[in-house]
Write a structure and sequence with these properties.
The structure holds two protein chains of two kinds. Chain A has six helices and three strands, in the order ααβββαααα. By secondary structure, chain A is of the alpha+beta class. Chain A has a single domain, classed as Sufe protein. Chain: A (Alpha-Beta Complex), CATH 3.90.1010.10. In chain A, strand 2 and strand 3 form a beta hairpin. In chain A, helix 2 crosses helix 3 and helix 4 packs antiparallel against helix 6. Chain B is of the alpha/beta class. Helices cover 40% and strands 15% of the residues of chain B. In chain B, strands 2-8-7-6-5-3-4 form a seven-stranded mixed sheet, with helices on both faces. In chain B, strand 3, helix 6 and strand 4 form a beta-alpha-beta unit. Chain B is globular, with a radius of gyration of 22 Å. The mean pLDDT of chain B is 95. Classes of the chains: A alpha+beta, B alpha/beta. At the A-B interface, helix 2 and helix 3 of A face helix 13 and helix 16 of B.
């Protein structure tokens, strides 16, 4: 049994994982530096209000930070996203993001790419929470697109 | 006291969802069979436009439309010509604000309101601030969201020309002393605009007794169809007010040079083909509410809320923001639990509530929190539903809120 399969088969481990990312979110300090792109996600739903920053250099995601007032699902899914994408190339990140959205939409996806983000695989059970599970991911997707557009 | 079990049989939503506890009545309400029938009858056998038809079905549509206006007039204790049908409370408020900017106020004049208002009783006034130099000032409210008459008196000064306030606020259900405010305001020549969206469905509303100048509310929050609202205005004020929308049905004649002569109120405010089936439906809804009795509805909801509040007060895991208000929603959070997580947990127990800032984005300065869960009752809710709700509320925690993921 792989590490991921073990994780997914144990609800206690999953619960601890989400709780940990919610109570002690990773990469949770905005730099407000000019070296970073920044997206404020507040308009989509009036309830979650988060800002995500990223520094993309030479096709590599060097850093991601976020802050905001948000629910468990938004906070933990964004925290997991930062862990997963920091250090990846833009191309790798795009592939991971695409797979994540496919998972959330209930489509086919590659579990190996998603690692801890697999914890959100049942989020569609509450359709109104899909927005929460994708808010940080959408912010990152948007910044990658902006970054690519600026290099064209 | 009303027979709630009998009343529930009037609402098909209960048989469609036998296990659902619906406590989101501040957002919208279920419709009784008589309202559904009135709307479908228009589609099945009564479809035609209003405004001077020459054939029997059209004449009948006109008659039903006018009957509805009379029913609403009776419901509010006013004249039918003082009842304007709009697209909703929001449309009513925007028309009122437009009229104030064009006909009643000038740059430098002040509108008083409170920080507990819904967006639809603030943003239209903010626009007057930006576009016409009319100022918005706030009457303070206490931690339960109540505005006291002494504070209204203190807030009044010579530039104040209007007070715009909800009779019952939508987040905390605070009841504002609208009658006293109107009496005080009128001594100073100040107009009074009341947002009745959360009051008219739940308590008797006598506009003559309250002596307010304008009142706005929505059909769908009082068992009626969506997309219909009411704008009540004192007739002489409606006559002085310009309509926000121009078009068919509201003009008497016009010429190619641009001259136009408008009809009198209320028709001049109802440009275009109105939501005829909706208007017929809200007439049926008002008739239904009157057949139960607004006094009875109010008394029942007060008792139910007291029962609910007493139980919620005992829960250690719950932060309860408005325990002492006698009507309106029960507004709370699970301690340390984000509002949407709490509401999501209740949803897993088949309980419908609303989380968020409830369109009252500046209220947090008063109650110290942005996001709350709002459980709002109506006269068809029961103590058994409250019991089920309280049992579920006991279990609200961050751990339980994420359970659906696993």
């Amino acid at each position: 049994m792989s590490e991921i399969e073990k994780m997914l088969s144990d609800p206690m481990v999953l619960r601890e994982l989400v709780m940990d990312h919610y109570q002690y979110p990773h990469n949770h300090k905005l730099t407000r530096s000019d070296l970073y792109r920044s997206v404020h996600m507040a308009s989509e739903s009036c309830i979650d209000d988060i800002t995500v920053e990223s520094r993309i250099e030479n096709g590599v995601i060097e850093d991601i930070q976020f802050e905001g007032e948000a629910c468990t699902i938004s906070t933990s899914s964004t925290s997991i996203m930062t862990d997963l994408l920091i250090g990846k190339t833009v191309e790798e990140a795009k592939e991971i993001i695409r797979n994540y959205f496919d998972m959330v939409d209930g489509k086919e996806y590659d579990p190996e790419l998603l690692q801890e983000a697999l914890v959100m695989r049942n989020v569609h059970k509450q359709a109104n929470r899909i927005k929460c599970a994708t808010i940080g991911w959408n912010a990152m997707k948007q910044m990658i697109e902006e970054s690519e557009a600026s290099h064209e | 006291m009303i027979d709630v079990e009998k009343i529930r049989q009037d609402f098909p939503m209960f048989s469609s969802h036998p296990s659902l506890v619906y406590f989101d009545n501040g957002a919208t309400t279920f419709k009784p069979r008589c309202v559904i029938d009135a709307v479908t009858e228009f589609y099945v056998s009564g479809t035609s436009n209003v405004h001077r038809g020459d054939y029997p079905i059209a004449i009948e549509a006109d008659r039903h439309y006018d009957e509805s206006r009379k029913t609403i007039a009776k419901f509010l204790n006013c004249e039918p010509k003082e009842v304007v049908f709009t697209a909703g409370a929001t449309a009513s408020m925007n028309q009122i604000a437009y009229g104030f900017a064009h006909n009643f106020l000038k740059a430098g004049d002040v509108i008083l309101t409170t920080e507990a208002e819904h967006a639809s009783n603030l943003l239209p006034w903010y626009r007057l601030e930006h576009e016409y130099g009319i100022k918005v000032e706030y009457i303070p409210v206490d931690r339960q969201g109540v505005c006291h008459i002494e504070d209204v008196e203190k807030a009044i000064h010579p530039s104040v020309k209007a007070i715009a306030i909800a009779h019952v606020t939508n987040v905390l259900g605070s009841v504002q002393p609208v009658k006293e405010i109107a009496e005080l305001a009128h001594k100073h020549g100040i107009y009074v605009v009341v947002d009745g969206a959360q009051s008219v469905p739940h308590r008797p509303t006598d506009v003559k007794d309250l002596d307010v100048d304008f009142l706005a509310f929505s059909s769908h929050k009082m068992c009626g169809p969506g997309g219909v609202g009411i704008l009540y205005g004192k007739y002489e004020l409606l006559q002085q007010m310009d309509p926000m929308m121009l078009g068919g049905g509201m003009n008497a004649r016009f010429q190619s040079c641009g001259d136009m002569q408008l009809k009198n109120a209320p028709e001049k405010f109802e440009a275009g083909t109105p939501n005829i089936e909706g208007v017929i439906g809200v007439g049926a809804a008002a008739g239904y509410l009157m057949s139960i009795g607004m006094e009875e509805i109010h008394a029942y909801e007060k008792e139910l809320r007291r029962y609910f509040a007493d139980k919620m007060k005992q829960l250690d895991n719950i932060e309860f923001y408005n325990p002492d208000n006698e009507t309106g929603p029960v507004t709370f959070n699970g301690k340390g639990v984000f509002a949407q997580d709490g509401a999501g947990y209740l949803a897993t127990k088949d309980i419908a509530v609303r989380s968020g800032n409830h369109c009252a984005k500046i209220l947090h300065e008063v109650i110290g929190t942005d996001q709350t869960i709002r459980a709002s009752l109506y006269f068809y809710n029961t103590k058994e539903e409250v019991d089920r709700f309280v049992e579920a509320a006991k279990e609200i925690s961050v751990e339980n809120a994420i359970s659906f993921l696993f």
